[in-house]
Amino acid sequence: MRANLTISCAMVLALSVAAQAQVSSISAIGSGVSNTTLPKQDVFVTTGYLSGSTTFDKASFEVWNDGSITNNQGTYGWTQNINIETGNTIAGNPDRGDDSASFAGNTSLSNVFSNTNKNLNWIIDGEGVTPDYTLDLMFGGGQTLVANAGQAHLLILERGMNSGMRVYGLYQTNSGISATSSYIDLAANQQTAAGFSIDTTEIDGSQRVGGWGIDTSSLYAATSGAGLLGYRFQATQALGHDGPDLVGVASMNPVPEPGTIAAIGLGVIGLLRRRKTA
Q1: Taking the model in full, what pTM does it have?
Q2: 212 in helix, strand or coil?
């Protein structure tokens, strides 16, 4: 986990309060993905998904540029290879479709949650036997999301449709990056089918993929206007979670940090001035 992440998982559990979740169904736009019939092969987002009034397209699944995962083996940063296995002893480890493209030795979060061409048959396998893990995904580069109420800001796809999870927001404080005091609990029975199934190396047979559309305005409110840098996804057996298998996470597009916006604005002004004097 990032060194400046100042609130531990235990402290978050002790201090946090449940937010009023606004969970909505999801539906594929057309087929949604490139492959709905061959569960062992690669699956890529094509036409995407709709949740309420929000469209989550291919780019929405490729907004992640930083993060970490903590499981029963340790903590792994964005570009660190995560231990994988063929059994059920490592919580929150990478898995892939039996016939999908191989990881080529790179099992880092930056590969599983690729920001260039996310493969939905490259997943984080929660493992039902040892299910506790914590995953942080962030936009990176100081980008933040302003999540106003009344629409879905986040879409999560889960393999099996049989586990819930807890979601926190991540935001910048004076002392570093912290998790919000409030959280959103997602239940397995709130999921709707995503229209495809996957079959990965650690299971026998395909399982349906489902998902949640989530209004995260309550998490944004907990940042006191700082904006959401990303999200924390927590799987905890004590809360009844059965090792959620994360297939993909999509978000509304964040905005650059104010300094970046100012630099872009100055660049545009300079260009206009050069055109006037030409």
Answers
A1: 0.87
A2: strand
